[in-house]
Amino acid sequence: MADERKSVREDGADAARRAGASPPFAFRVEARDPAGAARLGRLVTGHGEIETPVFMPVGTCGAVKAMPFPALWETGTRLILGNSYHLYLRPGHRLVAELGGLHRFQGWDGALLTDSAGFQVFSLAELNRVTEDGVQFRSHLDGSRHFFTPELSMEIQLALGSDIIMAFDHCLPGGASAGEVAAAVERTGRWARRCRDACGGGRVWRGGWERVLFAVVQGGTLAQERRRSAAELVGLDLAGYAIGGLSVGEPVPAMREMTELTAALLPAEKPRYLMGVGFPDDIIESVARGVDMFDCVLPTRMARNGTVLTRRGRLVVRNEAYARDESPLDPACGCPACRRHSRAYLRHLFQAREILGPVLATMHNLHWYQELMATLRAALRAERFGAVAAGLLADWRDGERQRREEIERGGPDAR
Amino acid sequence: MADERKSVREDGADAARRAGASPPFAFRVEARDPAGAARLGRLVTGHGEIETPVFMPVGTCGAVKAMPFPALWETGTRLILGNSYHLYLRPGHRLVAELGGLHRFQGWDGALLTDSAGFQVFSLAELNRVTEDGVQFRSHLDGSRHFFTPELSMEIQLALGSDIIMAFDHCLPGGASAGEVAAAVERTGRWARRCRDACGGGRVWRGGWERVLFAVVQGGTLAQERRRSAAELVGLDLAGYAIGGLSVGEPVPAMREMTELTAALLPAEKPRYLMGVGFPDDIIESVARGVDMFDCVLPTRMARNGTVLTRRGRLVVRNEAYARDESPLDPACGCPACRRHSRAYLRHLFQAREILGPVLATMHNLHWYQELMATLRAALRAERFGAVAAGLLADWRDGERQRREEIERGGPDAR
């Protein structure tokens, strides 16, 4: 019965994979901004090809919150992120494996990246003890005790069956001391080796597709530590690299500086992934600094709170100011919510606490993010990245500044 | 901008209505069960044609809970119900009128029936006083005072712009005395006249389409009162008639008897609508007794609680018993949830309190109800209603009996 479940894929990769003809993981840079570090690329995975720069919606716990998968596919999404920490706790990676892996369990035809659980262990769980072996913590769900190691992270991610596996790293909060940063960089390096060893040397062929390991560069906002971390991890010759430990409370200029510095230290021919970032302006600025991959809960989380994205910044559609506004969320948007519904209707749904409010706002925000990425890719292809990025940034910042001023004056978004 | 919002209609009724060529309301009986009272019919409205017997999903407050409108259209739904009480309180019928009426406000291309607010005033609101003039009550939302009259009910429904308007009736709870039932029948009659007078004699052409008034037969479980109520209301020569005051706690045999008796008293050439009913077996039994139209919150409300429908009765998919069940919710179903997802996945979504759980379960349950109605209509067309209805009833009752026995034994649905 389950084998007959229909696919929304149009490219035949599903059938190819079943026939054992799935391509190995690869990354190609297809164009570069002549005036900067931005690049257009293509990830080849066993679950389809993905154009970069790419934004990965976050499918925390087996679902991109409030999004039916066909609607997610229609936003142009071809790669999503799954959270190992959440899936390990519920429903459990062994259950997911038993039911055919995460792609099949959640009914997602595209590609999957899973995080290492490191970020959640260090930020969400009640932390008990970090040792060289791993991290002991208590679940945020029921207080139960768990011990996470690099090897367990690999076991979980291999069981989930993701196309891209993240190494288990030591992620520090913002404001850590230089000594703490140095120790975390060193531990992250040693743990990355253990992950590589537990993950077939960094590439594993299983279940009909290749799974590859990415390592995560740490180092806080210390240039010297970023250099040490990058040098050690690049030496492991993995399929891709992430920039971790940013967007954890540091000032924006420091985030930009560390992104630029770290991206430049990573191999030009391999994908670069900036973890957990961010707002549209953060994404544009980071693409300009050579980043290829992004994930962030912002579009989905903001949507559930009644905040939607427009070219001119955020719009808090649940506010009373929009009760009679017949225009769509974003006049330039072609998403299912904007094609059919007004701001006034969305405002009403949030007022009445109708589930359809978060559903439609999520559709809009993810469509909007993917349109942004498509615009950046088209600009790179046309060798117009600098001008297009500058225009998008100016509109976004203008709108956000105007919004702040209106809030101060008691305007629409203040009500 | 809003005028460019795209339609999901495929029959051109939207354009015809804009061109002023919308057809007047009509009902035609197209086939009858040779062995009983069931009939196949067609409602013609300014927002499309609807085949009967029809099930109307309930769009309480401007949305069929958790259902995007294109997904609702895909279930085969062409007529939905809106609750005047809820829309009057929030966002307010005047605001909806200002924004072009309820069809446009919520972005629904099909036809709309609105209830009179009577049922909610008598059941949900804090009731203060019923007089001949109307009902004074307090809002369940904020305790504010309101006075509802037949005239206000018509004002609200005309402002909302529904295709079918329900007369404001006096709806009693189950167990009312004979004297109370008689008084409510008489008041319902007088109020129906006032509704007719406030609604252009029962038919109003406004906004490019015709709106028609249906009256509601009351009388509790007293045959004599049902006869009195029906006789008086039929004398008003309205476009259609509803059977109200059932499924309010009376025994099932009494509900069936009153449905059969009342349906037979109503004009054969006009649509008959059994309000607020019900379970699949109630619907099949009532179609067999000559009912054409149904509404009920069951499929949507059950879905939000993690209960889904199958040919063999209800299935509580949030139960642990389904944690490893790879089959779809209903093996015979072709809805978006069953085509893509397993019971195990749905169970996980409800466990993790993911919004996608209610969304997918609602899609399934509404698809399932509309498939049931389509099956009944096809049987009527093929003159096989008796056999088809008997088969569906036997499967449903068998499954439900088995479920009760399993719960007693501590089986799947008990966990």
Model description:
The structure is a homodimer of 415-residue chains. Chain A is of the alpha/beta class and 415 residues long. Chain A has two domains: 19-52 and 83-296, TIM Barrel, CATH 3.20.20; 303-414, no CATH class. In chain A, 42% of the residues lie in helices and 19% in strands. Chain A contains 16 helices and 18 strands. In chain A, a hairpin with a 6-residue loop joins strand 1 and strand 2. In chain A, helix 7 packs across helix 8. The relative contact order of chain A is 0.12. At the A-B interface, helix 2, helix 13, helix 14 and helix 15 of A face helix 2, helix 13, helix 14 and helix 15 of B.
**Radius of gyration computed on alpha carbons of chain A:** 21 Å
CATH architecture level-2 label of the largest domain in chain A:
Alpha-Beta Barrel
Q: What characteristic shape of chain A results from the CA principal axes?
A: globular
Which two chains have the most extensive interface, and how many residues on each? A-B, 49 and 49 residues
| Spans of at least 5 consecutive residues with low confidence of chain A | none
**The CATH homologous superfamily of the largest domain in chain A:** Queuine tRNA-ribosyltransferase-like
Provide the CATH top-level class of the largest domain in chain A: Alpha Beta
Number of helices of chain A: 16
